[in-house]
Amino acid sequence: xxxxxxxxxxxxxxxxxxxxxxxxxxxxxxxxxxxxxxxxxxxxxxxxxxxxxxxxxxxxxxxxxxxxxxxxxxxxxxxxxxxxxxxxxxxxxxxxxxxxxxxxxxxxxxxxxxxxxxxxxxxxxxxxxxxxxxxxxxxxxxxxxxxxxxxxxxxxxxxxxxxxxxxxxxxxxxxxxxxxxxxxxxxxxxxxxxxxxxxxxxxxxxxxxxxxxxxxxxxxxxxxxxxxxxxxxxxxxxxxxxxxxxxxxxxxxxxxxxxxxxxxxxxxxxxxxxxxxxxxxxxxxxxxxxxxxxxxxxxxxxxxxxxxxxxxxxxxxxxxxxxxxxxxxxxxxxxxxxxxxxxxxxxxxxxxxxxxxxxxxxxxxxxxxxxxxxxxxxxxxxxxxxxxxxxxxxxxxxxxxxxxxxxxxxxxxxxxxxxxxxxxxxxxxxxxxxxxxxxxxxxxxxxxxxxxxxxxxxxxxxxxxxxxxxxxxxxxxxxxxxxxxxxxxxxxxxxxxxxxxxxxxxxxxxxxxxxxxxxxxxxxxxxxxxxxxxxxxxxxxxxxxxxxxxxxxxxxxxxxxxxxxxxxxxxxxxxxxxxxxxxxxxxxxxxxxxxxxxxxxxxxxxxxxxxxxxxxxxxxxxxxxxxxxxxxxxxxxxxxxxxxxxxxxxxxxxxxxxxxxxxxxxxxxxxxxxxxxxxxxxxxxxxxxxxxxxxxxxxxxxxxxxxxxxxxxxxxxxxxxxxxxxxxxxxxxxxxxxxxxxxxxxxxxxxxxxxxxxxxxxxxxxxxxxxxxxxxxxxxxxxxxxxxxxxxxxxxxxxxxxxxxxxxxxxxxxxxxxxxxxxxxxxxxxxxxxxxxxxxxxxxxxxxxxxxxxxxxxxxxxxxxxxxxxxxxxxxxxxxxxxxxxxxxxxxx
Amino acid sequence: xxxxxxxxxxxxxxxxxxxxxxxxxxxxxxxxxxxxxxxxxxxxxxxxxxxxxxxxxxxxxxxxxxxxxxxxxxxxxxxxxxxxxxxxxxxxxxxxxxxxxxxxxxxxxxxxxxxxxxxxxxxxxxxxxxxxxxxxxxxxxxxxxxxxxxxxxxxxxxxxxxxxxxxxxxxxxxxxxxxxxxxxxxxxxxxxxxxxxxxxxxxxxxxxxxxxxxxxxxxxxxxxxxxxx
Lengths: 893, 229
What we know:
The structure holds 2 protein chains of 2 kinds.
Chain A: H1 4-7, H2 16-27, E1 31-36, H3 43-56, E2 61-65, H4 72-78, E3 82-83, E4 87-91, E5 94-98, H5 101-107, E6 111-114, H6 130-139, E7 143-149, H7 157-164, H8 174-178, E8 182-186, H9 190-198, H10 209-215, H11 218-246, E9 258-263, H12 269-283, E10 286-294, H13 301-316, E11 320-326, H14 329-339, E12 344-349, H15 363-370, E13 375-380, H16 388-397, H17 401-425, H18 432-446, H19 448-466, H20 478-526, H21 531-546, E14 550-556, E15 559-566, H22 574-586, E16 590-591, E17 603-609, E18 612-619, H23 630-697, H24 703-735, E19 743-745, H25 747-761, E20 767-771, E21 778-780, H26 782-799, E22 805-812, E23 815-821, H27 855-865, E24 869-873, E25 883-889
Parallel strand pairs in A: 1-7, 1-8, 2-3, 2-6, 6-7, 9-10, 9-12, 10-11, 12-13, 20-22
Antiparallel strand pairs in A: 4-5, 14-15, 14-18, 16-17, 17-18, 19-21, 22-23, 23-25, 24-25
Helix pairs in contact in A: 3-4, 12-13, 14-15, 17-18, 17-19, 18-19, 18-20, 19-20, 20-21, 20-23, 21-23, 23-24, 24-27, 25-26, 26-27
Chain B: E1 5-9, H1 13-25, E2 29-33, H2 36-46, E3 50-54, H3 62-70, E4 77-81, H4 86-94, E5 99-102, H5 107-122, E6 130-133, E7 136-139, E8 144-147, E9 150-151, H6 156-167, E10 172-174, H7 175-183, H8 191-205, E11 215-218, E12 222-225
Parallel strand pairs in B: 1-2, 1-3, 3-4, 4-5
Antiparallel strand pairs in B: 6-7, 7-8, 8-9, 10-12, 11-12
């Protein structure tokens, strides 16, 4: 089977994944594990000896924590080494001494020595397990040396239990060892070890002495030693393969296998996981663990716990985990296998199957029949089978039983009453139908279990009240006994079937409600305009769903602050804040029921968007006992995913707005530069050209030509000074430093002066003035107002074409209205508002029209400073022309 | 010698105004147009001896006009450009413009460029022979370069570079043009290379290499050799 994974080894390039892994290894601290088969082989001793040697060589070595157990030779080795003070931890009145992780991180030595990798931390520590402390130290770039006994390796826990009969509680995930840079095997022979034990050289806690002594048998030790040796040898194999891949040396590492463990809520689940992990380690393969739920089924609490535990184990062992649901689990499993290129499927054969109807195939059988290119391994539950008593207990144990029994009893009592009552009036051929009705009623109202109880009660009541001899549980006629048994079978069958349909429809309704609520949430966040609105919607929705406090945090620069919470006044304490920080920094859940600060109130989950974690959601779990139900789990995941997407969208739309305004600014700046360079350079070029022509060639020119050149120099100088004046006015207006006089101004006077100035600048301009006489004065600055009217006229000359320009002035109520109307092509409706913007220019964009794009915006600034308004109308007359209208308030005398 | 006809392509009336007066006074016949379209028409109908072309025209890009003109005519073209149009200026020179003048300019500068362009066009290629400039004698017939009478030892590439500049004395040559002619088209973008060779050349031929008089740098554009004496 050719798969893409193999193809990349065909050309002799180094495997990119291997190279990537190597760079990651380089930035991370290096982990060295001193591995032993049992306590007392001398791991700590070997570790400390090496540490002394490095210290002597000048390496910055710090002892994080080493238990000497009062052994003199070990204590002697600690002499002269730098030892980190321990953290005092108070737990229920007992004082515990713990490794101080934060002190180690702050000290940041080159190498930290930390004994007992499998140690369980005091309850108030950041991580429940020491190996998690080590991970954090490695992430911080600190090299770590540690010691471990082989029995503490997660994947070997059941093997060790099998060999030694001792249940191992403190375990370390295999990936810690797998990712270690070095594993040093500290080995002595079992005989030597037993000898040392006899000499009292091995420290054992007094309480555990007897149990542990049973552990130190030659058989056990030999088996453990073999495990340790084999594990170390496997690692060497891996390193060789890695090396070959990295250097692109062709080798016999074969096609990479991918394994899939399918687990059900039965007792085989954990075994399936361990088996798969073993196989995967042996094959050097990637693996997945999946639980597929039949859609509509509602697993009970204990099943949920079992699945969650099995999947958590899979994660610790280095597998990827998934939860799926579908109408046909076998089909789902095969689909997943195809998608992920799985080569082997491992499935459990739980005893639950025994309760399955004989005509239905088990999951394992279905898989074996329908799998085509995939191998299927079936793992049995192993161990002693659960006695039937336990089954019965679980039937009786679950909650709701008393009320269901009561319902069944009442229903059956009613059936008896009705049956007896009817029997007084008419002879019923078959009273059993009434009991069947009672059973079905129970099934519909309270589910399958109530129906089964009702069936049993009906069986007894029917016999007691209706079958001769009456009021006894004996049956006289054999055919009646037969009828009675048939009744029981039919009642149980119909009752439990009806009950199951009811349970399923309840499940469907619940799923539909979840879907509906997700849909509503989706609509809510789609409408949200910014990140905070999204977060508030998410907080309100999660609170509505879980009925527990919810808080959402987002980073503001370096700080992580609550942005939304329900109830809104939630305060987070230091531990909760640091769990939230952890969740966003490491992009993994933290807090309650996780590997980081598991004892706090909240669980914090990162909201993952394309660019990584964007926010953190903290919520109190619906129940502190046991994991969350898969429905809640799925709903929360879906809501957080949607929230993350909505946050991303909000951010993108904000960035788009910002980019657009940046682009707009850029355009304005470009326009300014073009305008400046053109408007300054053209007159300068004319002046320089004309002046140099006069000097170089003046004696060869006619008097008229000389006069023309001199005139052109004057005109261009005037043009330049107008431009400079405009620029200065603009910058004064912008800087708010325009000094404006507040004198009484006769608008007609001002307009007249401006018209004369314009006639001088544009000798060929046709300007007509229509100024009402006797207009009241306005308050303002005559010089600046003249500039305004001049700018309007100047504009009319540039854009208005060759037609006549008309200046109007009249009074309208309390306002003096001055307008300048040209006869040009007019301004497009879309641009009419923009013509007062800075650097907006009519006509072509290349700046060829002589405008600076400043004139009108200066007018607007000046008129508004004088308390007036300015507006443009286009077309002005007969679908042509532009009219600019200024309104100034009349000064009240 | 008949009156030479100069076509001025510029849309600014004030610039047209003084150029017409100045060109006429300098003894040329000035033809003035304001757009690229009119310019192309005038090149055909009026057959000018040289063209003064503004790069920023209202209808067509000045470079497009130049490209069209070069499609059918070798008439010398002097570009009028602004300082911020450097890239366009170089492009225009590479497209076959003979020289450029940056606005604002003195009339003397424009006239000098026009004269050189007209001369190169008339005697193209300019007589090889001997070029004297600032005490340096470049004798292409004898492949000899002397400085105040003493022979200057040049590598073949330095000699090629020097004679390429000498053949176009008075005209600007862009980096690309020099690189293409001396090193071949594959090296057209190795400006760094050229800079090193020019530096070496200056040390060998200039009286004061720090203030070179023979090979002038046209910043960002190329090099120009001073005209012979």
